[in-house]
Specification:
By secondary structure, the chain is α/β, with parallel strands linked by helices. Helix content is 39%, strand content 17%. The protein contains 23 helices and 27 strands. A five-stranded parallel β-sheet has the order 3-2-1-7-19, covered by helices on one side. The longest helix has 25 residues.
């Protein structure tokens, strides 16, 4: 389509050095800047926040304490991207289109030949009485997340205003901080843009099972308190005790800068199919842009707009074609999946829907003239990506597929499909809308790891959940990447598995036939005091290994290093346990319950060492097609290792009791 925002097509030359100016340091603005820099342009990127650019999608795990800020930062620097200069804390307040200069709040001028506006959006705060009280927060930026994080340490009763995507994300983060959370949604259901009534009820039940209270079909009339928040009064007259309120009532595009510059605006900055405004030297992309009457607040379409704008700036033929909207994410305690405009599909003529549900899942498909046009799902679904591709391409739905859906909840026979067999049109990164075909093209062009693929396509740079799928696609076209500390892992695990196999293959070290005070074996294995000390030291080693094995459940460990380092420590402790077992028993397994304890302990050591070998050598195994990114070779021995660990605490207790009793 073409909006005819300018009298006639105007060509713009490829920008010279430092002549491409991008205003806005969000993911879409960063994407435009990176694409242009990759094409050899000298690009200046201005961000109004003082932080380095970051993934807004990952603010929830930041609030929940799952990640640190450095883990959600985008890799934007002159060192990582030649030709790209980043300036943070630079808020642009005026555009002088005649002089082609952007003017910052500090008076600094930034000349441009081509300007890209990626100013994004801001949180919408409704005019609720008391909304200015101390204790009312928003959840939109890193500063918002930081303020909420600080408040969460003392807050006990938190009310979330808004039951849409952003509100539930805030609720999820605060619930993980042990806050008592209440969500208030004025519509009759949660996530009304993505879910139907039945799906929203299913989601509500799942959320309430985790202790979050939900109020729908009512609105906040007043936020009450003397100087700071004390309660929230609803339109039905009920009152909710609150010491903090988070307003998540939607967003509004940041269009003031464009408006004051004389550019046409409505709900967003009006652009044509090339993402160009009426001014031939100014483009707009992302949440601030309005194309075809639509302002889209998702990262995926924003990335597509970034590619179109960068191609147009470089003089290439490009045209933005909107796709069916898709949402795929994990809300509080449940996977949520939605493709298509659900609200319109429910009332559109010639659209039929079919529902399948169980105690843990709800699925609904919309079919128009024999083709799939929309999908809703709450609960885990292995075929979600394939369903998204089918809906976006309008795949034909045959009677036997509908029969299977009514019976089992899927169009296709349940079988995990390898990524290398997925069609080029299948979406891999739902956040950015990147497909298998785009990733395969990036690999063919020399992108041999996840970081390079992210730089070329944007896949994996938002929430990161698609990275295992990227690794699996890399398997088909590039050597797998070794895990961190792979060589030390293999070395330590090799020694551990060799020593742990001694009691199985060789046997125990026998006691001397006669007692000798000078014998080290007599001292270590017959002296009661020494046996007690070595036993308790071994018990301490076992407890340390088990605690580290639970590090994902213990938030304290996040402050002390990443997963790779703790995995290395865990395996090193396993090797130490082998020596401790020898020092305590000489590899003698004993009898009765002691024998069971010894066998379980040796099995745990051997299987743990095998897991270490499979982990450190994973890249070599995958080169020989042993295991994949989603099904690594270590998966089976890891589960066996965990099963072997379970009896150890009980057997250890019986061992200690029998020693002291007899």
């Amino acid at each position: 389509m073409n909006l005819n925002l300018r009298p006639e097509p105007v060509s713009h030359p490829v920008a010279d050095a430092s002549d491409v100016l991008v205003v806005g340091g969000g993911p879409v603005g960063v994407r435009v800047a990176q694409l242009l820099a990759q094409a050899g342009q000298q690009v200046v990127l201005l961000g109004d926040e003082t932080h380095d650019p970051y993934n807004r999608v990952r603010l929830t795990p930041l609030l929940g304490g799952d990640v640190q800020f450095g883990e959600i930062s985008l890799n934007v620097s002159e060192d990582s991207q030649e030709g790209l200069a980043l300036h943070t804390g630079q808020r642009v307040v005026q555009i002088d289109r005649d002089r082609q200069v952007a003017i910052g709040a500090n008076g600094q001028e930034w000349p441009y030949k081509t300007l890209v506006l990626a100013t994004g959006s801001r949180a919408f705060v409704p005019q609720i009485p008391g909304v200015d009280l101390d204790g009312v927060y928003r959840f939109r930026t890193a500063d918002d997340a930081s303020a909420l994080l600080a408040r969460s340490f003392s807050a006990r009763d938190v009310t979330i205003v808004g039951g849409g995507l952003l509100g539930l994300e805030a609720a999820r983060g605060l619930a993980r901080r042990n806050c008592k959370v209440t969500v208030v949604e004025h519509e009759d259901r949660l996530m009304p843009r993505q879910l139907d009534t039945a799906a929203a009820v299913h989601l509500k039940e799942r959320i309430e099972e985790l202790g979050v209270t939900i109020h729908t079909g009512t609105r906040v009339n007043e936020i009450s308190g003397m100087g700071r928040v004390e309660s929230v009064i609803l339109s039905d007259g009920s009152e909710i005790k609150s010491d903090a309120v988070v307003v998540c009532a939607g967003v509004r595009a940041n269009i003031e800068l464009a408006s004051e510059s004389g550019l046409p605006i409505e709900r967003g900055i009006l652009v044509d199919d090339q993402m160009q405004t009426r001014d031939p030297n100014i483009f707009a992309v992302g949440e601030c842009a309005q194309h075809g009457g639509q302002v889209i607040g998702l990262v995926g379409p924003g990335y597509a707009q970034a590619e179109v704008a960068s191609d147009a700036i470089l003089g290439k033929t490009a045209s933005y074609v909107p796709q069916i909207s898709a949402t795929k994410l994990k809300v509080i305690g449940a996977d949520v999946f939605s493709v298509g405009d659900v609200e319109k599909l429910e009332v559109r003529h010639n659209v039929k829907s079919h529902i399948w549900q169980s105690e843990t899942a709800y699925r609904r498909v919309f079919i128009e003239r024999g083709r799939l046009v929309g999908v809703i799902a709450v609960g885990e679904w292995d075929q979600a990506s394939r369903m998204q591709d089918a809906a976006q391409t309008g795949e034909a739905v045959y009677p036997w597929m509908l029969y299977r859906f009514r019976k089992a909840g899927s169009f296709w026979v349940e079988a995990e499909e390898e990524m290398m067999d997925m069609p080029d049109t299948a979406t891999v990164c739902n956040c950015t809308g990147v497909t298998c075909g785009q990733i395969r093209g990036a690999i063919a062009g020399g992108a041999m790891d996840e970081e390079a693929i992210g730089l070329k396509t944007g896949a994996g740079t938002v929430c990161g959940t698609c990275k295992p799928l990227l690794s699996e696609l890399i398997d088909a076209g590039a050597p797998p990447k070794a895990v961190r500390f792979s060589k030390p892992l293999v070395a330590i695990s090799s020694v551990a598995v060799f020593l742990a196999l001694i009691p199985v293959l060789i046997g125990y070290v026998p006691l001397p036939q006669s007692y000798s005070a000078d014998s080290l074996r007599d001292w270590a294995w017959r002296d009661n005091i020494v046996k007690q000390w070595s036993g308790y030291i071994l018990l301490g080693i076992l407890c340390a290994a088990m605690v580290i094995g639970l590090r994902k459940r213990i938030r304290f460990f996040d402050k002390l290093g990443g997963y790779d380092g703790w995995r290395f420590v865990h395996i090193a402790i396993g090797l130490l346990a082998v020596f401790g077992f020898f020092a305590h028993t000489g590899f003698r397994l004993g009898s009765n319950l002691n024998f069971a304890f010894g066998v379980a302990f040796v099995a745990t050591l051997i299987l743990g060492a095998v897991v270490g070998l499979a982990t450190g050598g994973d890249h070599k195994l995958r080169e020989h097609r042993i295991g994949t990114a989603r099904k690594p070779a270590r998966r089976v021995p890891a589960w066996l290792h965990i099963l072997a660990v379970w009896p150890l605490p009980v057997l250890a207790l019986f061992h200690i009791l029998t020693v002291y009793a007899f």
